[in-house]
């Protein structure tokens, strides 16, 4: 198994990919632009379009959107596909969930969370989650099957708070 590395470069507004070619050795980095002023904060990797290749989702804090780089399977990626998250939303982190790889985005600007439901082909429908609000700016969001029921749950964390809540994807 190869262990590759994805790096979010906040100041240079790009993502670096470092591919392992043998144990302990990485190829020179390949960079993919995320747009001037994107101020990316967070990346997460998963197969977002069910083609068997890993893709990269990026929280672009400065441009108020989420970008997805669809992987080609050879270490290369297509240009970023943009999903708008709203004016002054400032997406700060992303979590993936379920077999169609929906993703959740926590926003510093509005202190809310939205769910983008995946169709399985690389397209997503934004579900505005008016019922999920933070008292403090969100710090981290994660997902997984915490209780072993086969359904993904989402953990929400905020500054100075250990755990804000747990939301089951069965409720969405």
UniProtKB/TrEMBL annotation:
<dbReference type="Pfam" id="PF13517">
    <property type="entry name" value="FG-GAP_3"/>
</dbReference>
<keyword id="KW-0732">Signal</keyword>
<protein>
    <recommendedName>
        <fullName>VCBS repeat-containing protein</fullName>
    </recommendedName>
</protein>
<dbReference type="InterPro" id="IPR028994">
    <property type="entry name" value="Integrin_alpha_N"/>
</dbReference>
<dbReference type="InterPro" id="IPR013517">
    <property type="entry name" value="FG-GAP"/>
</dbReference>
